[in-house]
Write a structure and sequence with these properties.
The structure holds 2 protein chains of 2 kinds. Helices cover about 80% and strands about 0% of the residues of chain A. Chain A is mostly helical. Chain B folds into 2 domains: about 200 residues, P-loop containing nucleotide triphosphate hydrolases (Rossmann fold, 3-Layer(aba) Sandwich), CATH 3.40.50.300; about 60 residues, no CATH class. In chain B, α3 packs parallel to α5. Chain B is globular. The chains are: A mainly alpha, B alpha/beta.
Chain lengths: ~350, ~280
């Protein structure tokens, strides 16, 4: 290979990957449209498109279905998927663990516990405050779980397998705590908590969408600002430190960001598993680990998977919307096991 | 201003466990290579980590008169290039990307000529666009070295840069390091297990043993039968090969009682002789 061609050859690879990112974005757009057009009530695709640009062209019932049910549902699938995909990718990098994700390390479960607390003890609060209280408590407990994982990993110099075991332990702890909260909850709160544990987009409101969108809009630029640091982290911690990267501080900041993303996602969509694990793996396989493309790619892949899962949740049993968490778990478990088998040499 | 690297009364460790004890070395001048040798667990890697700013310790360390470890990490990274002992094998980055990352993190711009030059220098062009995880241990080590060299550091700290390399590349890498430090006026500290390689390519050899300085000086003065006996517990001779390089010929393991149970007076006498020869021998 001649000298002049090295940078050029790399540029070609980079451009090819950009095309892959564009395809992911295109696939997401298509999936989003199909998601909006799919549902228990018959709603032709052309009518959906017309309703987007000219809401007055729809009758009242269809307008409500489109603007109050399907659109929020489909947008939430995209936003939550993107948030979980991004959170998973960043978590895997800073913990140097391909099996890390908010779900496998108990962060999602911790957020669900926080949300449960907010529901049970916040029902007396005005609705507006409750909308904030749920994600806030979800974030705080998620961040607490992140700190516990990091502290345990550091204290025991844990390898990849040990961190996953800590995560599994945390999942069980928070499951038990959620059960305890359910035990003391009244009927209304209990119903809401059960909805959370299943993972569902069915009760999405525009206010919730605005919160998730804002969180993503704030977190994503910060993630992208750190792409070179994150890329350098993949060359090893010692090398990263020698490059002047404040590894401990970076790890803490990223885990904070992961907690915000996972907390807000879980608070409004419930416990949706495996998106934060599978999204980054798809991005890694198709885009490599240069974080300039890997991070947006993970967010896009996460969004695409959840959007497709959302379509599947409506299409699997005609007339019934299966909670989306059930769909992602059913698809995610075999994928997770396949990844473990593939990674067995590195664990 | 004193040119080069100065190290005085340096100590370091991990938490309560002290690994390095009061190490003072002769001045290391620009354009020179210093080999750091010693038996296993001598504290060589800890010494390199200390100089790289990865761990903290006591004492005075300065480069060209500046206490560079006081600099913020990002500013220090432009001055010091550190190659760790082990290069992680799980990275999915392309070799080119891992060097590009190091280059960009230390202020490198969009001009990629420097990266291409390093790949050419280390004969890595054929693997540049392959994931690091798919490379052999030796190639990974060379990619790690490329990450260091692309930054044009004033101080090179290479911890076992040749441990995964074949004989040809062991010689080649140290020849390249020699070429770079002489051209750039940099100072290089290289940890190696191969004493013959250390003597052949270095201007000064530092011998560490159990976290203390055993000897430091020109290769022929620092590596002697006595140092080998005390440091490595081997009976050995040092002879010149046909090209004139000193070569260690290990005859046998020194019997443990002759080393461990050396009478105090004899041990002191041996250390005195070493001190006379090398100018330094700490307890």
């Amino acid at each position: 290979m001649s000298d002049a061609s090295l940078s050029f050859s790399y540029l070609r690879i980079y451009r090819r990957r950009l095309v892959v990112v564009s395809f992911l974005a295109l696939a997401l757009g298509l999936s989003f449209l199909v998601d909006v057009a799919t549902g228990p009530s018959v709603f032709p695709f052309g009518e959906v498109l017309r309703g987007f640009f000219d809401p007055s062209s729809l009758d009242r019932a269809k307008s409500v279905i489109l603007w109050e049910v399907r659109l929020p549902y489909a947008i939430m699938a995209v936003l939550v998927g993107a948030a979980l995909g991004l959170a998973g990718a960043e978590m895997q990098t800073v913990l140097n663990n391909p099996l890390a994700s908010p779900f496998t390390l108990g962060v999602s479960e911790a957020a669900a516990f926080g949300a449960s607390l907010a529901i049970v003890f916040g029902l007396l609060l005005p609705a507006a405050i409750q909308t904030i209280a749920v994600p806030l408590l979800a974030f705080l407990t998620a961040f607490g779980a992140c700190l516990v994982i990091q502290a345990l990993s550091r204290a025991f110099g844990a390898g990849a397998h040990a961190v996953i075991l800590f995560g599994i332990a945390l999942v069980f702890v928070f499951k038990a705590l959620i059960a305890l909260v359910q035990f003391v909850a009244d009927a209304d709160a209990l119903q809401q908590i059960v909805f959370w544990t299943m993972g569902s987009l069915g009760r999405t409101t525009w206010e919730q969408l605005a919160i998730v969108a804002c969180v993503l809009a704030v977190c994503f630029p910060f993630s992208m600002r750190a792409v070179w640091m994150m890329t350098a982290m993949r060359t090893g911690e010692a090398q990263a430190m020698s490059l002047g990267i404040p590894v401990e501080r970076l790890r803490l900041i990223v885990l904070f960001r992961v907690s915000v993303l996972a907390g807000v996602a879980v608070a409004f969509a419930g416990s949706i598993g495996f998106i934060g694990l599978v999204g980054p793996h798809i991005a890694r396989l198709s885009l490599g680990e240069d974080h300039r493309l890997y991070l947006p790619g993970s967010a896009l892949a996460g969004a695409l998977i959840l959007s497709v899962a959302s379509i599947a949740s409506k299409a699997l049993i005609p007339g019934i919307i299966i909670p989306i968490g059930i769909v992602t778990a059913l698809v995610g478990v075999p994928l997770f096991m396949a990844l473990i088998v593939k990674q067995r040499h590195r664990l | 201003m004193s040119e080069g690297l100065s190290i005085r009364d340096v100590s370091a460790g991990y938490g309560p466990r002290q690994v390095l004890h009061d190490i003072t070395l002769p001045q290391m001048h620009p354009g020179t290579i210093t080999a750091v040798v010693g038996p296993n667990a001598a504290g060589k890697s800890t010494f390199m980590k200390l100089l790289a700013g990865l761990i903290s310790g006591g004492g005075k360390i300065s480069l060209n008169g500046e206490a560079f470890l006081q600099r913020p990490p990002s500013a220090r990274a432009k001055l010091v290039g550190y190659l760790p002992q082990s290069i992680p094998g799980g990275s999915g980055l392309l070799a080119y990307e891992s060097v590009l990352g190091a280059y960009r993190m230390t202020g490198g711009g969009s001009d990629t000529e420097a990266i291409e030059r390093i790949f050419r220098l280390l004969d890595l062009e054929n693997v540049a666009l392959r994931p690091v995880s798919e490379l052999s241990g030796g190639k990974r080590q060379l990619v790690g070295l490329a990450q260091v060299l692309v930054r044009d550091p004033r101080l090179l700290l290479l911890d076992e840069p040749t441990s995964a390399l074949d004989l040809r590349w062991q010689i080649e890498v140290l020849r390249i390091v020699r070429e770079v430090v002489e051209r750039e006026g940099a100072v290089a500290l290289v940890c190696v297990h191969d004493i013959n390689l250390a003597m052949r390519f270095s201007d000064m050899v530092v011998v560490l043993s159990e976290g203390r300085l055993l000897a430091a000086g020109p290769p022929s003065e620092a590596i002697t039968a006595e140092t080998l006996k005390i440091g490595w517990q081997v009976e050995a001779r040092i002879e010149n090969c046909s090209l004139g390089y000193p070569v260690v010929l290990a005859d046998k393991l020194a019997r443990s009682e002759t080393v461990i149970q050396l009478p105090r007076k004899k041990l002191e006498r041996l250390k005195g002789q070493l001190r006379e020869k090398t100018g330094r021998c700490d307890d």
